[in-house]
Amino acid sequence: MRPYPSLPLALTMGEPAGIGPDVTLMAWAARSAERLPPFHVVGDADLLARRASRLGLAVPIARVSAGETGGVFADALPVVDLGQPVIGEPGRLDPRDAAAVVASIEGAVEEVRIGLASAVVTNPIHKHALYQAGFGHPGHTEFLGDLAGRFAVPADGSAWRPVMMLAGPDLRTVPITVHVALARACAELGEERIVAAARIVAEDLTRRFGIARPRLVIAGLNPHAGEDGAMGREEIDVMQPAIERLRSEGIDVRGPLPADTLFHARARATYDAALCPTHDQALIPVKTIAFDETVNVTLGLPFVRTSPDHGTALDIAGSGKAHPGSLIAAIRMAAAMSGAA
Q1: Is the peptide bond before 3 cis (omega within 30 degrees of 0)?
Q2: In this structure, what DSSP letter does residue 276 have?
Q3: Alpha helices, H only, the chain
Q4: If you average pLDDT over residues 234-244, what whole number do you get?
Q5: Which is deepest, 58, 84, 144, 270, by most CB within 10 Å?
Q6: Is the separation of the CB atoms in 242 and 191 below 8 Å?
Q7: At what angle do helices 45-55 and 20-29 cross, to 10 degrees?
């Protein structure tokens, strides 16, 4: 394992009414047993203190500046307090908290930009609550792509293009289309989108994960990958030309392959990441195989960002039933990726 970076990780608060505060407290409580690197939370210190009390967790909360994390982490959960108290209680959304949720994400990214944190680990947000408050992005991934504009632009002058990857112990998957309805996803699946996503995945598997020559596979859109056009021509007209372009660039890629035989153990051993045309094609297998160990990773950014693979789970927030496994895995992966960068 690569050594952890010297800078702490910056965790976002996430939706206050969800399980983000719960799993954050649980992760800190497990810091020694899990050998976690230092991290701090960017958010509302009082929220975490209230939730710790509700859960019966003996987690001291320490208000700190970002540079003070290392000296505090062993004895208390460090919080860089935003000075924006939140209102929502477990399971009860309040749109008035949206500004603090967004500020937490912005603050964590800014800490990485100015060299006070090594990576961003985001807790789950509740998109509908943010939409009600005027949030203009489909989700975390797209918002982080916009925030990347604070960093230097790519060498070719283009915009940063974030790509979502779900990474578990034995499987990495990438949805080529993400937070759109299925009918729209099929319409948006184009050659350029496939090529752009695969290039980013190949580059970041080398840059962030240390895989010298990543092996990619691309799943078909239609049953049996179209059955030579009998069940749809997207594989022939859109996907195959994209794959040929990628191969001409030296990227090791196979496909399009039938999605129903792509995720069993023997198949998984033949590739480093599977790119899938639609959101659920990518997320269902990786979450089924290792729900508590899977991490949401954003590739194609000038900074490292990871997140648990679950949502806000409003129904169990504050109950003690949440499991911190995915957040712990996200913390570990963010630290390892930062060391590789």
Answers
A1: no
A2: E
A3: 20-29, 45-55, 69-72, 98-113, 127-132, 140-147, 182-188, 191-207, 234, 240-248, 265-268, 279-290, 325-340
A4: 93
A5: 144
A6: yes
A7: 80
* CB 231, CB 331: distance < 8 Å: no
Rounded to whole angstroms, the Cα distance separating 223 from 331 reads 37
The one-letter code for the residue type at 278 is T
Distance, CA of 329 to CA of 326 (rounded, Å): 5
Count of CA atoms in the C-beta half-sphere (13 A) of 236: 9
Close Cβ partners of 280 (under 8 Å, ≥ 6 residues apart): none
Fold of 1-157+301-341: Isopropylmalate Dehydrogenase (3.40.718)
Give the closest residue to 166 by CA, choosing from 264, 309, 280: 309
Residues of the chain with CATH 3.40.718.10: 1-157+301-341, 163-300
Mean pLDDT of the residues in the chain: 91
Question: Tokens 């009998």 belong to which residue?
Answer: 230
pTM for the model stands at: 0.90
State the maximum Cα–Cα separation within the chain, in Å, rounded to a whole number.
Answer: 64
State which CATH number among 3.40.50.300, 3.30.460.10, 3.10.350.10, 3.40.718.10 fits the domain covering 163-300. 3.40.718.10
Dihedral sign from CA coordinates of 95, 55, 10, 138: negative
DSSP for residue 237? I
When comparing pLDDT for 134 and 238, which is higher? 238
**Using N-to-C axis directions, what is the helix angle for 325-340 and 20-29, rounded to 10°?**
70
Q: Is 187 exposed, middle or buried (0-12, 13-18, 19+ CB in 10 A)?
A: exposed
